[in-house]
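wait is this the right file?? whatever heres the structure
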């Protein structure tokens, strides 16, 4: 799969998963977690907050930038 296709897929999937936090992620939030999504959660099916849950399961291994985005979304 090309990098462009992965980016489009990630944007779509994270957009759906963002509803779990009652808000759609911004471009900045998507960018903050994109590498972590590809590394840990690219095989996760969207919907029902599964992508966010996957990222949270891998929280200890995420980049600090992605952790901040997830923390902020949980606190909203």
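ok assuming it is, sequence goes like this
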């Amino acid at each position: 799969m090309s990098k462009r296709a992965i980016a489009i897929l990630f944007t779509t999937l994270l957009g759906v998963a963002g509803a779990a936090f009652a808000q759609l992620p911004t471009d900045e939030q998507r960018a903050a977690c994109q590498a972590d999504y590809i590394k840990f959660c690219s095989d996760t099916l969207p919907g029902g907050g599964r992508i966010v849950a996957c990222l949270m399961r891998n929280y200890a291994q995420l980049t600090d930038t992605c952790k901040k985005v997830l923390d902020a979304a949980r606190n909203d």
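Confidence is low (pLDDT under 50) at residues 16-22. so i think its the right one actually
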